[in-house]
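Dear Dr. K.,

Following up on our conversation at the group meeting, I've run the structure prediction for Pyruvate:ferredoxin oxidoreductase core domain-containing protein from marine sediment metagenome. I'm pasting the input sequence below exactly as I used it, so you can double-check it against your construct before we proceed with anything downstream. Let me know if the numbering doesn't match what you have in your notebook.
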Amino acid sequence: PHEDAQIILIGWGSTYGALREALDVLINQGMDVSLMHFQEIWPFPTQFVTSILSKVKKSFCVENNATGQLAHIIQAETGKQVTAKILKFDGRPFSWQYIIRELKKRGKTWSL
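The predicted structure tokens came back this morning:
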């Protein structure tokens, strides 16, 4: 990830394609955003993730489940909580449009 970004999108597994497309669109819109994507969770890179989350202002965990499993792992391993979770659990994959729409909805609360 770009370590000086103000916002970081976090995902794992099948969310990569939609997150990558959303990242490109957001960067083209002038947002200072980066992506941290995990192919594997274990062993968890605690120091790396802690370092990244300490530098960004907002973090959004994008997950294909109902409970925010990765966000919980991040908090358990680093002690840091993500700003918000964007969850989808209807069996359909994420689209970049959905991610951006949800990010902007949540961003209104935190002045993105």
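Two things stood out to me. The chain has a mean pLDDT of 92. DSSP finds four helices and four strands in the chain.

Best regards,
J.T.
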